[in-house]
């Protein structure tokens, strides 16, 4: 999305224009009166949002389109899309100077988890299939899969579709959201903190796009817990951007500076150190085809 589009939608959310046009006001004059923005600002904003496909004119008033469901009416996390989370991230980018001084990003908004889940649910099917194929290639005889930090369950559902016994492990607020739309999937949902402990007895520990949100000490703990979650002969596969491999890894590290307390992107040597300390053998990193991400692979010895 063009930065101007995102900034406009962010400003419309922050001033209450989005809420007003959805629930109480249909004309620029009514929106201006509801929100205390100028009528000129309301007119230009509503016109631009119409051009972007979020609004339409009906009988002289503005109404939300289907594209706007994620912005206006979040009845299902799968309908939210990427824009609300992008706006949440923009909040934190605007606060980056203060974060640089204090080391702490702003408190997340109430809808942070739902918006994040909505954005994560938009991962394209080709990427999901490629990452899962990369993981199962490392242990073709696997039967039980632990999806660590599985979020909305995109990868878990693909593992389950291929016949694996799947457990999705994530923070309790994420699992609460998952229960509303994964209840009919053959996936066990387990809440917890992956840096504290994990469920055990698995052949494959899969962890996509989690390491960059954690600090070094947390990643060391995550790697050890992933090792402990595996039966002897099991394999851990982390998917993430690795510095020196992914073209935009350093810039993504700056994104983590804006968005998280401890997150960053990490080098091959750092991942190898964490995996070695955990007890893994035969550490490997390889590019995931068709993506700008890498598979970080460790094998738990059979004996």
List the helices and strands and how they pair.
Blueprint: H1 3-15, H2 17-23, H3 28-35, H4 39-51, E1 55-58, E2 61-64, H5 69-72, H6 83-94, H7 96-102, H8 112-120, H9 125-138, E3 144-148, H10 154-161, E4 165-170, H11 172-181, E5 187-191, E6 202-208, H12 216-229, E7 230-240, E8 242-243, H13 249-259, E9 266-267, H14 268-278, E10 281-287, E11 294-299
Parallel strand pairs: 3-4, 3-6, 4-5, 6-7, 8-9
Antiparallel strand pairs: 1-2, 7-11, 10-11
Structural write-up:
α1 packs across α6 (83-94), α3 (28-35) crosses α4 (39-51) and α6 (83-94) crosses α8 (112-120). The chain is 47% helix and 19% strand. Strands 5-4-3-6-7-11-10 form a seven-stranded mixed β-sheet, sandwiched between helices. A two-stranded antiparallel sheet has the order 1-2. The chain is an alpha/beta fold. It starts with a helix and ends with a strand. It is elongated, with a radius of gyration of 22 Å. The longest helix has 14 residues, at 125-138. The chain has 14 helices and eleven strands.
The proportion of strand residues reads: 15-25%
* Total beta strand runs: 11
Most strands sheet: 7 strands, mixed
Query: Level of helix content?
Result: 40-55%
Distinctive features:
single chain, 303 residues, alpha/beta, seven-stranded mixed sheet, two-stranded antiparallel ribbon, 47% helix
In short:
The chain is of the alpha/beta class and 303 residues long. The chain has helices at residues 3-15, 17-23, 28-35, 39-51, 69-72, 83-94, 96-102, 112-120, 125-138, 154-161, 172-181, 216-229, 249-259, 268-278; strands at residues 55-58, 61-64, 144-148, 165-170, 187-191, 202-208, 230-240, 242-243, 266-267, 281-287, 294-299. 47% of the residues lie in helices and 19% in strands.
């Amino acid at each position: 999305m063009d930065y101007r589009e995102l900034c406009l939608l962010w400003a419309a959310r922050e001033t209450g224009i989005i809420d007003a046009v959805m629930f109480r006001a249909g004309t620029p004059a009514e929106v201006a009166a509801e929100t205390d923005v100028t009528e000129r600002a309301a007119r230009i904003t509503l016109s631009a949002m119409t051009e972007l496909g979020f609004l339409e004119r009906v009988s002289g008033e503005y109404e939300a389109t289907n594209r706007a469901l994620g912005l206006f009416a979040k009845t299902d996390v799968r309908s939210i899309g990427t824009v609300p989370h992008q706006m949440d991230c923009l909040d934190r980018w605007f606060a980056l100077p203060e974060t640089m001084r204090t080391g702490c990003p702003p408190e997340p908004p109430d809808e942070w988890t739902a918006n994040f889940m909505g954005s994560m649910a938009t991962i394209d099917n080709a990427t999901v299939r490629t990452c899962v194929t990369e993981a199962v290639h490392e242990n073709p005889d696997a039967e039980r899969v632990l999806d660590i930090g599985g979020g909305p369950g995109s990868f878990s559902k693909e593992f389950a579709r291929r016949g694996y016994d799947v457990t999705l492990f994530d923070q309790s607020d994420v699992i609460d959201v998952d229960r509303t739309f994964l209840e009919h999937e053959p996936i066990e949902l387990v809440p917890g903190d992956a840096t504290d402990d994990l469920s055990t007895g698995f052949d494959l520990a899969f962890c996509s796009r989690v390491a960059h949100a954690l600090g070094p000490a947390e990643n060391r703990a995550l790697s050890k817990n992933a090792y402990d979650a595996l039966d002897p002969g099991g394999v851990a596969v982390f998917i993430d951007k690795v510095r020196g491999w992914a073209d935009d890894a350093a810039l993504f590290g700056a994104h983590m500076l804006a968005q998280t307390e401890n997150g960053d992107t990490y080098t091959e040597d750092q991942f190898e150190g964490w995996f070695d300390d955990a007890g893994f053998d035969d550490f490997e990193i390889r590019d995931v085809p068709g993506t700008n991400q890498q598979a970080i692979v460790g094998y738990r010895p059979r004996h």
